[in-house]
């Protein structure tokens, strides 16, 4: 087994990404006396809205049929560091009956200014349009006008500044959404290696937030795969110790590559999580994304793995320790919990992602 790594000294800013300045609101009028607020739309995996609202300083996000909206008067750079959202878009509506109206002299000027501001925040190097009928003559004209107005190349496939056009929510006009960052926020910069069955990083962030972060935690991530849970935790702040294992050498190599990209020195070992040989009560937080029985493992092997996993984690966890489990094998997991009858368990969230609807549970010893 590798030696659990301890948290390096706090980053010099000492800032948790979620604790930056700035206030959020769903009521623009609150900010009449401050700098003008802009409207944003947040794309969040269904099930993680509460975590996202907490990350946005607890403000209520206004939900309409299209998404989660909020007004923000502060530095938009802060929004580019959100970790619970898939993407964040600045939104502006134009009182035009159809997209052709955006080609009017005034509208085009306003649209170009609006997109310029977003590109200044995100440093985008190209743009693309996303709209129904994006091959139409109007859209092609718009792309040409924006190409010269923004001085950015139009790249219909890979353009970094994603510009979405759609009928205005609850209004007669059209609205434009511009993604603040060149890549989705959920596509983490540290992810150089991907694996089938890799967890969406926003789910890993949410699981850690709800399982609790404590500076004194000794943390174990069995079955680490590509390292999503470990790396997200390492980026969230101090802990006492952190160690990960996976039975697959490819997974260990993948985690190591991602750790290097994240500039975190945490040892990972190719070890069977059920046979670590570690002493009892070694950890205060064990967090695991178990094989779901499709991309990784199968239902038959999970019937054997799940009860053994829960038994061994019961041994490894401290008296008041927390075990956080993410799984899509809901029936199996809940059956084993009932049969073993040695855990207090509660559901943290259920999230919808890529056609799956896994749950995260938090367990403590009875
Ligand atoms: C769902 S994947 C984890 C994915 C990971 N959360 C990520 O984001 O990449 C489950 C992992 O469990 C590992 N695994 C299965 N049985 C194991 C065992 N007995 N000990 C350690 N790892 C195991 C598999 O190799 C696989 O990498």
From TrEMBL:
<dbReference type="GO" id="GO:0016423">
    <property type="term" value="F:tRNA (guanine) methyltransferase activity"/>
</dbReference>
<dbReference type="InterPro" id="IPR029063">
    <property type="entry name" value="SAM-dependent_MTases_sf"/>
</dbReference>
<dbReference type="Pfam" id="PF01170">
    <property type="entry name" value="UPF0020"/>
</dbReference>
<dbReference type="GO" id="GO:0030488">
    <property type="term" value="P:tRNA methylation"/>
</dbReference>
<keyword id="KW-0808">Transferase</keyword>
<feature type="domain" description="Ribosomal RNA large subunit methyltransferase K/L-like methyltransferase">
    <location>
        <begin position="188"/>
        <end position="358"/>
    </location>
</feature>
<keyword id="KW-0489">Methyltransferase</keyword>
<dbReference type="InterPro" id="IPR000241">
    <property type="entry name" value="RlmKL-like_Mtase"/>
</dbReference>
<feature type="compositionally biased region" description="Low complexity">
    <location>
        <begin position="1"/>
        <end position="18"/>
    </location>
</feature>
<feature type="region of interest" description="Disordered">
    <location>
        <begin position="1"/>
        <end position="33"/>
    </location>
</feature>
<protein>
    <submittedName>
        <fullName>Methyltransferase domain-containing protein</fullName>
    </submittedName>
</protein>
């Amino acid at each position: 087994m590798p030696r659990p790594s301890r948290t390096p000294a706090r980053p010099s800013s000492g800032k948790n990404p979620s604790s930056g300045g700035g206030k959020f609101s769903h009521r623009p009028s609150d900010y009449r006396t401050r700098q003008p607020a802009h409207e944003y739309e947040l794309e969040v995996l269904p099930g993680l809205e509460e975590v996202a609202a907490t990350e946005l300083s607890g403000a209520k996000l206004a939900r309409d049929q299209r998404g989660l909206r909020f007004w923000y008067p502060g530095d938009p750079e802060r929004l580019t560091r959100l970790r619970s959202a898939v993407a964040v878009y600045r939104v502006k509506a134009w009182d035009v009956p159809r997209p052709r109206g955006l080609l009017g002299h005034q509208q085009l000027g306003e649209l170009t200014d609006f997109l310029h501001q977003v590109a200044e925040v995100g440093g985008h190097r190209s743009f693309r349009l996303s709209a129904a009928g994006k091959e139409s003559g109007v859209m092609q004209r718009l792309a040409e006008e924006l190409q010269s107005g923004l001085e950015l190349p139009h790249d219909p496939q890979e353009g970094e500044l994603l510009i979405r056009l759609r009928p205005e929510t609850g209004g007669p006009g059209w609205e434009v959404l511009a993604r603040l960052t060149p890549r989705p926020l959920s596509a983490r910069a540290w992810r150089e290696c991907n694996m089938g069955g890799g967890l969406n990083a926003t789910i890993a962030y949410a699981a850690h937030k709800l399982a609790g972060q404590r500076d004194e935690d000794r943390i174990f991530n069995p079955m680490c795969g590509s390292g999503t849970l470990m790396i997200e935790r390492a980026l969230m702040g101090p802990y006492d110790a952190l160690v990960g294992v996976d039975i697959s050498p490819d997974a260990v190599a993948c985690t190591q590559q991602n750790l290097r990209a994240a500039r975190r020195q945490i040892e990972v070992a190719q070890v069977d999580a059920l046979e670590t040989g570690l002493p009892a009560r070694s950890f205060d937080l064990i967090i695991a994304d178990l094989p779901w029985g499709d991309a990784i493992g199968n239902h038959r092997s999970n019937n054997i793995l799940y009860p053994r996993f829960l038994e061994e984690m019961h041994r490894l966890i401290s008296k008041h320790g927390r075990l956080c489990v993410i799984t899509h094998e809901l029936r199996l997991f809940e059956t084993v919990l009932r049969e073993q009858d040695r855990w207090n368990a509660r559901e943290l969230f259920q999230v919808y992602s890529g056609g799956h609807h896994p749950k995260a549970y938090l367990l403590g010893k009875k």
